[in-house]
Amino acid sequence: MKVTGEQQLVDTNYDQPHAGMQQVVASVEKVIVGKSDAVRLCLVALLSGGHVLLEDVPGVGKTMLVRSLAKSLGCSFKRIQFTPDLLPSDVTGVSIYNQKTQEFEFRPGPIMANVVLADEINRTSPKTQSALLEAMEEGNLTVDGVTYVLPKPFMVMATQNPIEYEGTFPLPEAQLDRFLIKISLGYPDMKDEIDILSRQEKGHPIENLQQVIDLETLQELQKDVRKVYVEQSLREYMVKVATATREHRDVYLGVSPRGSLALLKASMSLAFILGRDYVVPDDIKQLIPVTFGHRIILKGEARLSGTSVEHVLREVMRNVPVPISRDRERQ
């Protein structure tokens, strides 16, 4: 789902954006031109302890966004190129018998990193896709009955081509539900594309990208996000919107409680990035499309009639009253 127009993550009424997060956005924008909203959404997922699904056509910068974000954060980075013949052990790692010690030794797979790029995740079989489920949900990895703890922070950023492309396997609902947000970068406008050509004429800017924040600071920021205040009426609003998707006439499968929790966490992170220690209704409204959109499955007749998930969410958001937040009031 694209981040355009009314979904832009801009805060004009309150405090200054968080300085550290702004530095990260500025750093990534040296490589990814004109996509500051998409970068902020990735940071929302990172601070929330969630994962990102990037769906778009090839060549718009999905992979480069993940690489530049990892480099700016000083995170360990691994890339998994998903192909039809990829095995689950190629993702998780494998235990190998060492003849010298006469013991099995675990050789970790590329999943053992802070930022994992699952490139073209829908080009592999559902069996291999499911190898990510435990890691994404629990931050652990079990191989041959032994559980290994993944590095912290840990985030999977998966890219996929649109489902209509040949040779793709649609992600199962259980896998989609593990992604905190789903976004699309979209094509750059003419000015930004000319800027891209100029920047890469004599080399790629990612080669000179520097770390702007360390892992220890990042983990502290993740803890600070949990202190962001969410008014009870706003929690109720999130649940009402989720419930409305389940009851909508065109929806076969609505947003799960995990989706409501994802919206709560994302709203807290966005408020923090924008320099506030409390959530306002606009935070929630901006994040509903990217946190709920991929969790909704339409009925067959609705799809055939041209109804889209975006249309359903717009209708739901129109019909569910937005509470009037008291902003800085605390319990």
From TrEMBL:
<dbReference type="InterPro" id="IPR011703">
    <property type="entry name" value="ATPase_AAA-3"/>
</dbReference>
<feature type="domain" description="ATPase AAA-3">
    <location>
        <begin position="51"/>
        <end position="181"/>
    </location>
</feature>
<dbReference type="InterPro" id="IPR041628">
    <property type="entry name" value="ChlI/MoxR_AAA_lid"/>
</dbReference>
<feature type="domain" description="ChlI/MoxR AAA lid">
    <location>
        <begin position="244"/>
        <end position="315"/>
    </location>
</feature>
<dbReference type="InterPro" id="IPR050764">
    <property type="entry name" value="CbbQ/NirQ/NorQ/GpvN"/>
</dbReference>
<dbReference type="Pfam" id="PF17863">
    <property type="entry name" value="AAA_lid_2"/>
</dbReference>
<dbReference type="Pfam" id="PF07726">
    <property type="entry name" value="AAA_3"/>
</dbReference>
<dbReference type="InterPro" id="IPR027417">
    <property type="entry name" value="P-loop_NTPase"/>
</dbReference>
<protein>
    <submittedName>
        <fullName>AAA family ATPase</fullName>
    </submittedName>
</protein>
